[in-house]
Amino acid sequence: MRRVKKFLFLLLAMSVLFAAVYTFTCYSLYGELPTLESVQREWKRDTQNFKESLNITQNQVDHSQAKKKIAAMTPLYENKQSVVSSLREALVKREKTIKLYYHAPSKESNELAKGLYHEAILPTSIGDEGDYIQYHIDQIKMTTSSLTYDEGYYYTLSYQVSFRTTDAQEEAVGRMIKEIIMPLQNKSTVDKIRFINNYITARVTYEQTGDDLCYTAYGALIKQKAVCQGYTLLMYRMLKEAGIDNRMITGTGISNGKAVAHSWNIIKIGHLYYDNDVTWNDSFRMNQYYLAGAATFAKTHQSDETFKSAAFQKSYPLSQTAYRE
């Protein structure tokens, strides 16, 4: 309390001294005492000048810091497609911490990181991309931060990812698949599908192993134990590597009157896609759900809402009848 009183007393004394000096100066120069209004004007002017000098200094500091931050953004991408490609590549390599930088000419959404992630996992013709990436991710956290400088927008896109498999495990899967499908190069599309379907049903055992590997293609191919997701992902990748377009579908399977979470593939032959449940082809009567038609398949399989949209059905038209050779 004493320190506060001393400070206030000192402030008052300085104010009185300033007023006295100002008064003496004016009287010396102009031969007259200043008015109260002129003293107040001088005080406001000096205060404003002081504030402006502080703002200039702060702006210089902010300008310098912004330049340093931007210089550290490397590589700095100038278009979204480059960001998407780099993000996809990092996900394929199973990088757990991903940070990308993007320079935008206009302001972007606060959900930019999320939007670019969804573009990165769109299906391609490559076996370890698209659905294969999406369903091998256990958890992902995405954040978007931005910096405005010289009318430009600089974004830092951060991803923390937990995968069900490692890069080394995926490399093992890739090597083995190449060996398996090598004899199929000159085979027809249907011959390739039949071979891959039968290869999986003959070697993989349906089993909940208690770890994440049973949900992966690695678990199905290398450990030869998996649940429906592992079966489906292996089918997805092997078909893609053999040059056959397909998608992984999630939903519910109905067996003995019970609905359970399930997954299967839709596989393209000609201009249409056929339902194929490689898990149940193994678990129930052999190949009962092999290249089935949607009309019959829907009695035991219900896809999630995402796959029922008009846009999806237009992109992936389903055959209503089973494939007949």
TrEMBL record:
Q: Which GO terms describe its cellular component?
A: cytoplasm
Q: Which UniProt keywords apply?
A: Signal
Name by which UniProt lists this protein: Transglutaminase-like domain-containing protein
Q: Pfam families, per this entry?
A: Transglut_core
| Nucleotide-binding as UniProt keyword | no
What Gene3D superfamilies does the record tag this protein with? 3.10.620.30
Tell me which InterPro entries the record gives.
CAP/Cytokinesis_protein, Papain-like_cys_pep_sf, Transglutaminase-like
Domain Transglutaminase-like stretches: 187-269
Q: Which residues form the signal peptide?
A: 1-19
